[in-house]
Amino acid sequence: MADILLTYQPLEFSPVSPADGAQVIFQGVVRPFSKGKEVLRLEFDAYEPMAISELEKIAEEIKAKWPEVNQVLLHHRLGIVNAGEMAVIAKISSPHRADAFEACAHLMNRLKETVPIWKKECYNDGHYWVSSTP
Amino acid sequence: MADILLTYQPLEFSPVSPADGAQVIFQGVVRPFSKGKEVLRLEFDAYEPMAISELEKIAEEIKAKWPEVNQVLLHHRLGIVNAGEMAVIAKISSPHRADAFEACAHLMNRLKETVPIWKKECYNDGHYWVSSTP
Amino acid sequence: MRFSLLAFGVAREIVGNEITVDNSDIRDVQSLRIWLSTTYPLLSGLNKWAIAVNEKYATDSTLIAPGDVVAIIPPVSGG
Amino acid sequence: MRFSLLAFGVAREIVGNEITVDNSDIRDVQSLRIWLSTTYPLLSGLNKWAIAVNEKYATDSTLIAPGDVVAIIPPVSGG
User: Fold this and answer.
1) What are the residues whose beta carbons fall under 8 Å from the beta carbon of A10, sequence distance 6 or more?
2) Label partner for A73 (CA 20 to 30 A): which of A29, A34, A52, C37?
3) How confident is the model over C46-70, as pLDDT tens digits?
4) What is the pLDDT of residue B47?
5) Which of B101, B109, B112, B130 to mutate to test the interface with A (most CBs of A within 10 A)?
6) Is A115 an 8 Å CB contact of chain D?
7) Cβ of D47 and A131 within 8 Å?
8) Do A117 and D79 touch (CB under 8 A)?
9) Rounded distance, CA D79 to CA D77, Å?
10) Which of left, alpha, beta for B131 (phi over 0: left; psi -120 to 50: alpha)?
11) Which 8-state DSSP code applies to residue C8?
């Protein structure tokens, strides 16, 4: 039921799921600036087997909370991602749109809370592991 | 700022907006069944100039309520749309994902409240204008 | 007073795409509604429909002027 | 007791990708944390990190057994 992928390749758009009336997609794109500094690229690190098992837990949560949801998709890039490229794509398909919006927002919130993936911002003059230092 | 389109052609996927970190997309697809009956196709009618002006009002509402939103996109098909095809695509781009999820859900809610577009469900044995009769 | 009347969705099947109304009793949306219900009794069987005057939602007290474009707006169902 | 210790993100730059720990004082996550803070003082300058044992989040009282795979999990920042 859950379509989970961690990949070093560019992310592809997800095709339309013809049986589901409501499909909500989130695309997270690398912004060229962060806190006023130019970002050259991001580098993502992950503890891959644990990240996949945490994402599967989140998909189970979603199925329990929104039983009508038919598809949970989360594809995340690892390694170098340049400004303007997609770092993450999330998609929820469901018969009804309210469920799809809520479940997709929940998926992104939980991704950022529990899934062991780390983002390094690379500037002209150094780098910074996001959230890692006070 | 608002990218509004009513079209008799199949809808195209919207490209990634490289400057916005958070992009939320809603795809509304024609379901093959409605209330247990097989739906062969939908037919959409619209009062086109008024639909466009109502959609522009909704885009203005969104810009007022979520000032950081950079892109409001709403493409709606008219005429015959077969089961499995997209009838509507909505997209909001914003620096932050919470705004993008809320604004996209609002856009779809308001579309269904005020925009003069009408949906006819066509079955093997007749047709039904949705919401039109008690 | 002459004006154009458009009809959409289910109302188009009852009234037609567009008619020209020429009736001196119709001065506002309320009097138009009375005339429509008499002339097209099938409209009374529908869910509550709105009237637009010159592409804007109107209320019963909205006046109709010669040359206006008036439309019957059944409950919308886009998306 | 021997076990593998993985480190990710900013912790990887301090500890390395993977080390083998062989230390009889380490029996649970709490004692591992004490050993880590002594051995890698730079870890103390980071925001609060978690420990995973065999790919699951652990608490301070989680026991570590020989052959376990233990990981330092700095605050996550995916998406």
Assistant:
1) A77, A85, A86
2) A34
3) 999 999 999 999 999 999 999 999 9
4) 98
5) B101
6) yes
7) yes
8) yes
9) 7
10) left
11) -
Which amino acid, residue A116?
P
Residue of B nearest to A84 (CA): B18
Strand, coil or helix: A1? coil
Strand segments, DSSP code E, in B1-134 are 2-7, 22-29, 33-34, 37-38, 41-46, 71-77, 79-82, 86-94, 117-123, 126-129
What is the pTM for the complete model shown?
Answer: 0.94
- Cα A121 off chain centre by: 17
Tokens of B36: 């247990």
Neighbour tally for C26: CB within 10 Å:
21
State the pairing for strand pair C50-53/B86-94: unpaired
Tokens of A17: 């799921």
> Using CA atoms, how far apart are residues C2 and A52, in angstroms rounded to an integer?
69
Among A47, A88, A111, the residue with its CB nearest the CB of D8 is: A47
At B84-120, the pLDDT tens digits run 999 999 999 999 999 999 999 999 999 999 999 999 9
Calculate the CA B59 to chain-centre distance.
13
Kindly list the residues from chain B whose CB atom is less than 8 angstroms away from the CB atom of residue C76.
112-118, 131
Distance CA A18, CA D27 (A): 53
Q: Which residue of C has its CA nearest to B29?
A: C79
